[in-house]
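Assemble and predict.
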Amino acid sequence: MTSTANSLRQGPDEMGRFGMFGGRFVAETLMPLILELDEAYKAAKADPSFQDELDYLNKHYIGRPSPLYFAERLTEHLGGAKIYFKRDELNHTGSHKINNCIGQILLAKRMGKPRIIAETGAGQHGVATATVCARFGFPCVVYMGAKDVERQAPNVFRMKLLGAEIIPVTAGQGTLKDSMNEALRDWVTNVDDTYYLIGTAAGPHPFPQMVRDFQSVIGRETKEQMMEAEGRLPDMLVAAVGGGSNAIGLFHPFLDDKDVQIVGVEAGGKGLDGDEHCASLTAGKPGVLHGNRTYLLQNYDGQIDEGASISAGLDYPGIGPEHSFLKESGRVEYVPIMDDEALEAFQLLTRLEGIIPALEPSHALAELVKRAPKMDKDQIIVMNLCGRGDKDVFTAAKHLGVDLEQ
Amino acid sequence: MTQRMDDAFAATRAENRPALVTFVMAGDPNFDTAKEIVLGLPDAGADVIELGMPFSDPMADGPAIQAAGQRALKSGQDMKKTLELVRQFRAQNSGTPIVLMGYYNPIYIYGVDQFLADALEAGVDGLIVVDLPPEEDEELCLPALNKGLNFIRLATPTTDDKRLPQVLANTSGFVYYVSMTGITGSALSNPTNISAAVERLNKHTDLPICVGFGIKTADDAKRIGANADGVVVGSVLVSAVEDGVAANEQPSQIAARVHKIVRDLAEGARSSR
């Protein structure tokens, strides 16, 4: 709340560092663009009309504030702490991704860069980007791994309906990280008119800061709504981390509230022993990729490994640099949840509360299910329900042995 | 170490011709073939050798060099073997400068101090690390310069006059002018723009200016070499390796393919003035 020398909310510094993490590790061709973006973002932040327009769109286009919902039956079922959900799955387009997209598209407009490019994994960020591009009349190019294009046909169709051009990426392994490489290659080629609308709180400075700021609306609202509902702050926050944008959005406004325990949940995939997981913070080590220093899944030679998770949205071998900083400072605890645990939580919430969560927040939910029963009944947990599960019913069916084709 | 680089450019300047700087990927398609390729480059006409350090995520490279890195990694190439390749080259050639080119993470994971010590010992003359702009000089550039290794920086069409002094400040050996905004292996931009850019750079530095990105033929080398201190070729050479691999050729045949192209390019460069 107050800015003191000890605040954990000061970062990044002028070099874009959160402690040793972050930075601007990009090719020279991009460096002037990154500096221009930094200047433009600073100017926008200081301009009340920018904030007014953002507030207006947050309210009337996205549908903010999202509700803070007391999950009465889940609380009763687990028999411990009171459970609240921050319901960002009710946003326009069905997840928190739109919060960032609406902020960045306003910045792109302000900078006079009308051609928008983005990367996407499962397609949620691609859909949110295509949505704001349609709203502002900007051409939109989305890079998506060739395998994901096949697996996520509904989202691909949605993006096309919204007017976006989808470019399947076959370079490398054709996954999310390769799509990010490809988007960077596009940006390095089309420097004059193109804005790279990055989907998570990672990449070169100022992206991690900017995405965090746009997502922090989640935490700010939560604080207010919690005070209104309970007259005090929660005891614990839980959120899923892939790149980490929904989590940093919830966590950041609470970082200096020392009594609020904070837990980030990574994708443990099929277990941390093999290589089929995405737990960069638990099982990776610091390295440099996509413009920033952060925890990465990599081998002894610094070659980046592929992640694996039941949830495509968590399937990234890196993590936003501020999370790396928060891990090392000890402020946030990061834990892995396995595919099968997430799938169980997915079904539990659906049956107890009538909410089908996305597989990403299902990871956070599985951790909450472990912790809530051990807490007192007068304690409070807030979990970020950052996306809805409509997109995941096919994956869930497959894993539950149900054939939807019949 | 700087000496070998300075001597190479002094020699080409004395002959009033541009230097031919050739890029190949270490370990592509495997260690032994790459060694045969690299050992023959000076005789084919290369004045400076850029040796790629393979990386899984080469963000500034086009499909040809991406594929070269993947072939190398698949064959088991790593940083230790790349330095070993330099060592074995140096045992047979003491004159041709070698510049290692790649991305920061494999160096960071190897350990910066250890890497610099081992690179010097192996006989490396300089480094080009694509994702380390001047803003991150403390990571590797300054330690490298302290140890006596050249740190060669890329200047690009987006590097304006205001930024240029910062880009050139800790650059040594030569300046690598990237002829276009884009990735390696794209189409060459307008030669008139390039020579204007080289002139602009010359106003800011006495270092040799080498131009790369998009140079594929002897004619390209001739045209661009007319006004630059050197021309850099890469994608066309690694594509030759790819063709040789596709045709199931022996290491000596693959090396011969590459050397033939280098001879053509050298001829083009030598006839540019």
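The CA atoms of residues 41 and 107 of chain A lie 7 Å apart.
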